[in-house]
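Hi team,

Below is the intake form for Type-4 uracil-DNA glycosylase from Saccharopolyspora aridisoli. Please confirm the fields before the structure is written into the shared record.

FORM ID: S-0412
PROTEIN: Type-4 uracil-DNA glycosylase
ORGANISM: Saccharopolyspora aridisoli
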Amino acid sequence: MSPREARAEAFVPAKGGLPAMASAVQACRGCGLHENATQAVFGQGSTRARVLLVGEQPGASEDVEGHPFVGPAGRTLDEAFREAGLRRDDVYLTNVVKHFKFVPAERGKRRIHQKPSVGEVRACTPWLTAELRLVKPELVVCLGATAAKALFGESFRVTRDRGVLLDFPAGFELGGRSPDSVLATVHPSSVLRSSDREAAYLDFRNDLRTAADALC
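The structure came back. Fields below:
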């Protein structure tokens, strides 16, 4: 474990559950992303959720509002939820990285998302580990490559294994009951960027239907 990872882990409270973690994450200095972000954005949702969805990081809207998946990608996710038979109130939504990483924008222009580094993902992983321990979901849905690689390692390819129920990785130690399975799909933001948005959306929705069917 690197010094930065050790410092990030030290900020995760041992008691108080998710409310204590949501408060403590605001003081996290485990990597440099806190320096430019408006705030940390912690996970939200049912503490008894059977499914936990994890994305890459908060976007510009999430950074300002302090809630996960409230921007355009979140609206796409909500639409897919409805059609797949899932409800936001019944799931737990979070991101691997809790601070928004972006390219500074010129005055009056939108901040541009920047992919977090492997080191930044690793530094933030103790927060995700703690969320998994507390929520105890049956199924984890990884939204995008960054989330999937945080669980399975850098060799994982969403293009190869998307929409398939996989065993929860044994190397990701939770110190208790682990989820039964993991399903990887694309991040909803990629649907919005697709040249064939309708087809990309249908594929994404069908992946979520596979997740919903797994809970039956």
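SUMMARY LINE: The chain has a mean pLDDT of 93.

Thanks, M.
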